[in-house]
């Protein structure tokens, strides 16, 4: 595990921005960027989905909402936009083996919520015919959205007091920074990176009130626009893996950030330097106001 902190003040500033108010701990409702929508379909999606050609099944998490469209991002970072219609069935499983299912409204599809989606073809797009989710995931997503449920290691008076002070936190203790590295133009996690990420999650989980701040970077190869998108994709990939494979709770994750080629660790004029700069930094932070609480 690499522990590198070249500019901790900049990292603390990013963390401050991410928790400027208590609501910042909740998942932010993002609009689906126009560039993410690869198809154009006119009119409202039909309510009667019977007889329509089956589309692919999609598993991932809700990463954005915009009107009747939902963007689902899977574990490898690929995003798919599906339409929600009056015929879409949304159900949450409760209990053992998924029995006792409850039907939900479309507004339950909160950002960060893991889902399994069955689709049908509609023109050049997709309509969700059925969306399945787990009741416990829905509760977690709702907690993140509202900030009213348990938010840290345990539901104690100290935890609630911590939540109440989140708006006033302006300084953090940086406990550790783990860098994971990527190939040129790629956002694919290596086996070593996966091991390091779960090791970092284990380390952070042992700290009371620890939060994670994930920041993505690139080398100088490519345009500014491409590198910004790539750095965000790398950060998103790391967040996904930390949550889905390493068990890190979403409510302990600060808003991830893509910084493109800024803040390089090494000289971009050399191959070695570029390799050091193609990274995502996973920072373990604890507010100075609660460190040791």
Which runs of at least 5 residues are low in confidence (pLDDT < 50)? 1-42, 95-101, 146-170
Shape summary: globular
Spatially, the strands of the biggest sheet line up as 3-2-1-6-7-4-5
What count of domains describes the coordinates?
2
Label the CATH architecture of the largest domain.
2-Layer Sandwich
Fraction of residues in H or I helices: 25-40%
Order of SSEs: HEEEEEEEHHEHEHEHE
What is the CATH top level name of the largest domain?
Alpha Beta
The radius of gyration computed from the alpha-carbon positions, rounded to a whole number of angstroms, is 20 Å
**Beta-strand percent range:** 15-25%
Q: What does the main sheet amount to?
A: 7 strands, mixed
Structural class: alpha+beta
Q: Which superfamily, in CATH terms, is the homologous superfamily of the largest domain?
A: OmpA-like domain
> Any idea of the CATH topology of the largest domain?
60s Ribosomal Protein L30, Chain: A
What's this entry about, in short?
The chain is α+β, with helices and mostly antiparallel strands and 293 residues long. 25% of the residues lie in helices and 25% in strands.
Give a structural overview.
This protein has 293 residues and is an alpha+beta fold. The chain has 2 domains: 8-26 and 168-287, 60s Ribosomal Protein L30, Chain: A; 34-142, OB fold (Dihydrolipoamide Acetyltransferase, E2P). The protein has helices spanning 8-18, 135-146, 157-164, 191-205, 224-244, 271-277; strands spanning 58-66, 69-73, 79-83, 89-93, 101-103, 114-122, 125-134, 172-181, 211-216, 257-258, 279-287. The strands form 2 sheets. It has a 7-stranded mixed beta sheet with strand order 3-2-1-6-7-4-5. It starts with 7 loop residues before the first helix and ends in a 6-residue tail after the last strand. Residues 1-42, 95-101 and 146-170 have low confidence and may be disordered.
């Amino acid at each position: 595990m690499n522990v590198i902190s070249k500019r901790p003040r900049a990292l603390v500033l990013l963390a401050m921005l991410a928790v400027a108010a208590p609501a910042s701990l909740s998942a932010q409702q993002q609009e689906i960027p126009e560039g993410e929508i690869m198809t154009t379909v006119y009119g409202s999606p039909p309510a009667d989905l019977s007889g329509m050609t089956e589309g692919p099944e999609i598993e991932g998490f809700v990463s954005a909402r915009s009107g009747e469209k939902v963007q689902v991002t899977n574990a490898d970072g690929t995003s798919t936009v599906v339409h929600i219609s009056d015929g879409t069935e949304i159900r949450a499983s409760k209990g053992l083996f998924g029995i006792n299912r409850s039907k939900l409204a479309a507004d339950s599809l909160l950002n960060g919520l893991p889902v399994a989606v069955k689709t049908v073809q509609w023109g050049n797009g997709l309509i969700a015919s059925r969306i399945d989710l787990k009741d416990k995931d829905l509760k977690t997503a709702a907690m993140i959205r509202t900030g009213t449920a348990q938010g840290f290691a345990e539901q104690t008076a100290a935890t609630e007091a911590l939540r109440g002070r989140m708006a006033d936190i302006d300084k953090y203790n940086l406990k550790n920074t783990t860098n994971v590295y990527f190939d040129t133009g790629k956002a694919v996690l290596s086996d070593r990176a996966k091991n390091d990420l779960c090791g970092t999650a284990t380390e952070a989980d042992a700290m009371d009130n620890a939060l994670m701040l994930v920041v993505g970077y690139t080398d100088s190869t490519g345009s500014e626009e491409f590198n910004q998108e790539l750095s965000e994709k790398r950060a998103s990939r790391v967040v996904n893996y930390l949550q889905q494979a390493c068990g890190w709770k979403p409510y302990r994750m600060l808003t991830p950030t893509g910084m493109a080629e800024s803040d390089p660790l090494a000289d971009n004029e050399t191959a070695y330097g570029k390799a050091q700069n193609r990274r995502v930094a996973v920072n373990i932070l604890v507010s100075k106001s609660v460190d040791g609480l």
